[in-house]
Amino acid sequence: MSGHSKWSTIKRKKAANDSARAKVWSKLLRFVEVAAREGGGDPDANPTLATAIQKAKQASVPNENIDRALKRGTGALQGEAYEEVAYEGYGPGGVAIYVRCLTNNRNRSSQDVRSAFNSAGGKLAEPGAVAWMFEPKGVVIVAAASASEEDVFLVAAEAGAEDVRGSDESIEVVTPTHEMKPVRDALSAAGIAVESSDLTMVPKTTVALEESDAKKVLGLIDALDELDDVSEVFANFDISDEIMATVA
């Protein structure tokens, strides 16, 4: 399981129990709104919207909030004119970082993202500098206690998964983007507990970090996540379970 996925799992559990919930909900609802505006309000015909709604529900966002975001996206209710912009850069230890924003003010987003990089000892790069290091994939996270890695692999591979990676607490199933839902459904049908599923950007290679750089990189990821305009952050770091337990 990649370091970034382990960190995302930790943050997701933390967000469900602390004051970060309101910020997480706001970002997820913005994602729903933009997906509906760009691809239509029918999740069956709009995979991006289906993923956005699923992520919101996984975070326990109330259905009425999701419905209002859908209506804003389709024009039934008035909403903001958000657009997606991406920023690329490098963090401590040479880690590649790809940042997606949903914003109504490009200048604000650019300044905020640049400031976060600079404060953490990173730097922004030109467009295209790190995007090639990532591939769009589906990722399904399974609770390790619910099944063995071998059982997960057998079910997931049959349904179209590409890879299965285990750790102490979770098992990560990587799929082509169009196979994420069938794989998730197959695992659930087999009685295997799915903790989350997401369309994401998976690094082609990873950079192993020692504790000092790990703290700095995770600090940068957190600083970026705190920005209102930032919707997703992807990075190609890998941190051992032992170091992750220390720094997290």
List the helices and strands and how they pair.
Blueprint: H1 3-15, H2 21-39, H3 47-58, H4 63-74, E1 83-90, E2 96-103, H5 106-119, E3 123-125, E4 134-143, H6 149-159, E5 163-166, E6 170-175, H7 180-189, E7 194-203, E8 207-208, H8 211-226, E9 230-235, E10 237-238, H9 241-247
Parallel strand pairs: 8-10
Antiparallel strand pairs: 1-2, 1-3, 2-9, 4-6, 4-7, 5-6
Question: Brief description of this entry?
Answer:
The protein is α+β, with helices and mostly antiparallel strands and 248 residues long. The protein has helices at residues 3-15, 21-39, 47-58, 63-74, 106-119, 149-159, 180-189, 211-226, 241-247, and strands at 83-90, 96-103, 123-125, 134-143, 163-166, 170-175, 194-203, 207-208, 230-235, 237-238.
What are the salient characteristics of this protein?
single chain; 248 residues; alpha+beta; Arc Repressor Mutant, subunit A; Alpha-Beta Plaits; 3 domains; four-stranded antiparallel β-sheet; 10 strands; globular
